[in-house]
Amino acid sequence: MSALSERPQNPLVGLAVPHESADLHVTGEALYTDDLVQRTKDVLHAHPVQAPHAHARIASLRTEPAYAVPGVVRVLTADDVPGVNDAGVKHDEPLFPTEVMFHGHAVCWVLADSIEAARLGAAAVQVGYEPLPSLVTVREAIEAGSFQGGQPHMARGDVERAFEESDHVFSGELEFAGQEHFYLETHASLALVDENGQVFVQSSTQHPSETQEIVAHVLGRHSHDVTVQCLRMGGGFGGKEMQPHGFAAIAALGATLTGRPVRLRLNRAQDMTMSGKRHGFHAEWRVGFDAHGLLQALDATLTSDGGWSLDLSEPVLARALCHVDNAYWIPNVRVNGRISKTNKTSQTAFRGFGGPQGMLVLEDVLGRCAPLLGIDADELRRRNLYTHGQTTPYGQVVGHPERLHAAWEQVHASSDFVARTEDVALFNRAHPHTKRGLAITPVKFGISFNLTAFNQAGALVHVYKDGSVLINHGGTEMGQGLHTKMLQVAATTLGVPLAKVRLAPTRTDKVPNTSATAASSGADLNGAAVKNACEQIRERLCQVAATRLGVSPGDVRFVDGQARAIASSSERVPWEEIVHDAYFQRVQLFAAGFYRTEGIHWDSSIFQGEPFKYFAYGAAAAEVEVDGFTGAYRLRRVDIVHDVGDSLSPLVDVGQIEGGFVQGAGWLTLEDLRWDESDGPGRGRLLTQAASTYKLPSLSEMPEEFNVALLQHAPEEGAVYGSKAVGEPPLMLAFSVREALRQAAAAFGPVGTSVDLASPATPEAVFWAVQQARGAAQGAPEHGHVVEGAPGVVPDQPAEGAPEYEPESERVQHELSTT
Amino acid sequence: MTSDEVSAMTTQRTDLTVTVNGRPVPLTDVAAHTTALDWLRDQGLTGCKEGCAEGECGACSVLVARPGLDTPTEWTPLNACLMPAASLGGQEVVTAEGLGTPDRLHPVQREMAVRGGSQCGYCTPGFVCSMAAEYYRRGRCTGAPGPDGAGDMHEHGPNGFDLHALSGNLCRCTGYRPIRDAAYALGEPEDDDRLAARLDAPPPEPVPARVARAGAELVRPADLAEALRILAERPDATLVAGSTDWGVEVNLRGSRAALTVAVDRLPELRAFSVTDEWVEIGAALSLTEAERRLDGRVPLLAEMFPQFASRLIRNGATIGGNLGTGSPIGDTPPALLALDADVVLTSAEGERQVPVAEYFTGYRQSVRRADELIRAVRVPLPLARLTAFHKIAKRRFDDISSVAVGFALDVEDGVVRRARIGLGGVAATPIRARATEAALTGRPWREDVVRRAAEVMAGEGTPLDDHRASAAYRSAMLGQALLKLYAHDTSLEGVGA
């Protein structure tokens, strides 16, 4: 067992403790960024002027009429920017645009004494637009050849020869929707210039360091002039990784220009029409199986809908390619990726970060092909699971595949899969108008940022003279329980009770140059950094205690707030006394911790490497019941076995699994982003821009029976206290729901019916699938059927001169390593 | 009539006070459009959150002391984002901060905290308020079903907790299982619980009130006569009866009416009576109150109520309001059309009765004159034997219909004697499916007849493609609704999904 993964005696990690802020949450006392406005004097409120065109040139901008509105103090435009007019790091996201790139794009911002005055002021601003042609759907972009960024290419083996040698070749298309984050707390920033001339920004951000960088470059100041603090977020899910920067910069710009605090909080419609979402994708695929249903080859082209700017689309696409295999061995692979440029919001990170999109393609292929192969879908999936010694298409050995099989076998048994499959068949024979489906799907998800440099973290730990401990780290809290885990890690490492440790809000003047709290890596990275800082202090205190106890420092242990020697008869000295002694012996009682993930490397120009420290595994079995009259359905039961390594905090981890699963089910079945694709005046407008039109799962979508188990005996050697990352992987367990719906719909037709299911599988989509199964698809939308045999659908290959794939961030790293 | 004249002819108070978490707070600096949510947050009660500002997410849920049925007062959870702050005058409000503190958690807060019911915590205060209301429902622990009935055992806990109580609250983090477990773990309030004790005293009376600022005013008249007097003088007045639509218009569309008249607490509009000929439901009874007063007496309505938005909305929204807004996708009109109900309109000149089928004249338009109020809805008796309400939506709780169908059929000796079918979501107004009714009336209640009628029904109305559903699906659902009704009437197959 490694030093990183080994647990001491009586560890506080592993205990099921409630969220560290639970008592504040339930009493309404937990503060979020916008709650600070009531505590701040003379605040100005910001309101955007949003363009009513999908694509247009801004011909004129008259702000004077806004100043006629009582209460309006300032209108911010491009002319006000002292630094760089850009909200991103790639210089393709002007903070104040000269060209409107999507419906709802903010042209300028009005600051006023009240939000009402700011709203009226924004309505008074006169903007002259010259409309330009627009591309709204990914298909339109493909036809127009409108792409952005590099085009990755992942290959192994010889797909053409493998197709020739395959017993079955199928091909088809799939287009599926993105997803709105719908964190309950919309984007919010509150900026002020403090007594020392420092720009202080409270922001609901997953990436305070990057928010700080963007604020600094917009203001033309150095990073040390800007401090960003994130108290906590009311949900993030990736939507606050890149997107908060511009909003924070507007608030900061307003504060520096007016000398008054500026609050920028988006209302829901603004948040939904201005901020990026999960990428929808279009996929063309060709797949070969041998006579036993074993995958022989996959040829696919994935085109993501990137929206108007590059944002995080490149790494999202890279992760999609890295997860197209999900948990299955495919000897011959050729997958191309490209990012369409459309006149929509700039699509961005969302829990899973492309992984779910890549995996959906292959799970859809398996679900559609199983009936054509005459193999039950669960059996087809089981046969193709990775086994020992196999590698992913990008060349990484699949570590611990036995855990994937263990999760699968365990959920197969605990869900009583065999008997219930029989029950479902009996039910379906007895019910002409109602059918059930039961499906099981696996998850394999790679943990680490694809870009090696991001896999670092820092922490700052103070022990005060009274023995109390204060920790800071670079990760942000968005509900995922990171701070809870960090408290447990610190208390475990120092051997003190949880109550001795307090965690201060995340801010850039405590721990600098942090990575985003993203990629499920928050606990892995920051936990190791907190542990490192605590270990430095503990080692120093061991010296102090050793003198006091008269033993060698190596024999001192801190357990339950006491120092003692390893001998059980040892004297016990309270932690506080050791700390007190240490101070008077002039021993340093604080430390900065640091961690870098070892043993990973990645080269996306050849799409090869070992980008992931390890894989997280899981499996889920879901049963649904579909009403053949309407396509409405219920989720009757879900069983999950998921691998979180040796859990740091079981209550938190189970919460992540359940919440991720339901959010994934929402993406796949319910949440329906609709844009105006007509040629009318509203072209490009987001039609579902409110909670009343964009439906996320409510209590009625929760599985009626929901059993979640953590995979036992699966400590992860390479991570803090043997744990594994948990934020993203469970989202993809929800493929089981989609596949169960497909099977239930197919049950309305003869045995062996292959059903195409749109995504999201809303009741309407399921109804058309049922109609397809019944062979009566009049009126059903075209959805593209599976084609058997060659040539079928041949995925687009990269055009001559297509830009190579090497993201900006990686280019920087390359330059560093070659000079 | 100017605003001064309105003020001169009415009896409302402008020096309003609200009891918030047990303490009186003056209701100052409030405009007609100020929501209770914004006002509470301005008082420093920032536990009350804005998630959507349209009554969909429940993050702003607070408890308001309202007249009860089982006890004199009931703690009624409402969306603060949809309530005019002015409507709080003289009322008692409890927020999450008032239920407990971190040192002294309320039982609901304790269960939510220890079971992992909060992750990001943003929706949590709203969930806590909705859950607390059901916690305090008298008779819950002794098995009395909630207002939405005990139909589905998956939706009631062993402690009698009715999950519909949480249908108007959204959580994006937890997946809801720990929230359900917290709700199902609640015991009974302790003997010294002051909020439980409050239920046995009378509720605060509605206070006639007037707030005016920047040329816009909101008036709560003292009685019907005064309301009608104002309406007669001011045809531009916006009527509010529950304000669940008003809040959306104010928050999302920036609507700022010059004069808003709130009629939802007028005693004359809150009557409920049953005679041999009809059931009369006061227009200003909330949907929850109407549901409980009816107590299953009209099965078609009993089937409709739990599908109407969410409990949080039903606690505020009224039947009169749902007809008054005239939306083509309101859920009560298809049911009332099938029941052949009448709308009772009243004005200074007297009352008239209009069949619901003749009430709507165009998109959000009706025969109601500007000087008229909806006083009540009358459902004629006896009721048809075979009734059903089918709502097609993406989500089972808390969604808006893409199609809604109300059925009321009299089948005698295997023959359809009379058929009334109300439709929502397929035309600019709610409509009767006249052609389908004709295709059924006088014919045997038999599969071949039903199949032919279903084809007719699929051609009713002029459905549109929109973000909720395609026109093709809407049409298909009309025909399917009749087939489903027939299948359920003639077989024992479960209701299923």
CATH topology of the domain at 22-29 and 456-596 in chain A: Aldehyde Oxidoreductase, domain 4
Please state the average pLDDT score of chain A. 95
- Kindly identify the CATH topology of the largest domain in chain B: Ubiquitin-like (UB roll)
What gap, in angstroms, lies between the N and C termini of chain A? 38 Å
CATH superfamily of the domain at 22-29 and 456-596 in chain A: Aldehyde oxidase/xanthine dehydrogenase, molybdopterin binding domain
> N- to C-terminal separation of chain B?
55 Å
Strand content of chain A: 15-25%
Mean pLDDT of chain B: 93
Q: Which runs of chain B of at least 5 residues are low in confidence (pLDDT < 50)?
A: 493-497
**How many strands appear in the DSSP assignment of chain B?**
20
| Helix coverage percent of chain A | 25-40%
Radius of gyration of chain A: 27 Å
Count of discrete structural domains of chain B: 3
What profile does the largest beta sheet of chain B have?
5 strands, mixed
| H/I helix tally of chain A | 20
**SS summary, helix count of chain B:** 18
Query: How many strand units of chain A?
Result: 31
CATH class label of the domain at 22-29 and 456-596 in chain A: Alpha Beta
Tell me what the CATH architecture of the largest domain in chain B is. Answer: Roll
What can you tell me about this protein's structure?
- The complex is a heterodimer of chains A (819) and B (497).
- Chain A is α+β, with helices and mostly antiparallel strands and 819 residues long.
- In chain A, 29% of the residues lie in helices and 23% in strands.
- Chain A has a domain at 22-29 and 456-596: Aldehyde Oxidoreductase, domain 4, CATH 3.30.365.10.
- Chain A has an eight-stranded mixed sheet, with helices on both faces. In chain A, strands 7, 8, 9, 14, 15, 16 and 31 form a seven-stranded mixed sheet that branches.
- In chain A, a hairpin with a 6-residue loop joins strand 23 (562-565) and strand 24.
- The longest helix of chain A has 28 residues, at 522-549.
- Chain A is globular and about 85 Å long.
- The mean pLDDT of chain A is 95.
- Chain B is an alpha+beta fold and 497 residues long.
- Chain B contains 18 helices and 20 strands.
- Chain B has helices spanning 3-9, 36-42, 96-99, 107-114, 124-135, 177-184, 194-198, 224-233, 246-253, 287-294, 299-304, 311-316, 319-324, 332-338, 356-359, 434-440, 447-457, 471-490, and strands at residues 17-20, 23-26, 61-67, 73-79, 92-94, 209-213, 216-220, 238-240, 259-262, 272-274, 278-282, 342-347, 350-355, 360-362, 365-366, 373-380, 386-392, 403-412, 415-424, 431-432.
- Chain B has a five-stranded mixed sheet. In chain B, strands 10-11-16-12-13 form a five-stranded antiparallel sheet.
- Chain B is globular, with a radius of gyration of 23 Å.
- Classes of the chains: A alpha+beta (819), B alpha+beta (497).
- At the A-B interface, helix 1, strand 28, helix 17 and helix 19 of A face helix 3, helix 4, helix 5, helix 6 and helix 9 of B.
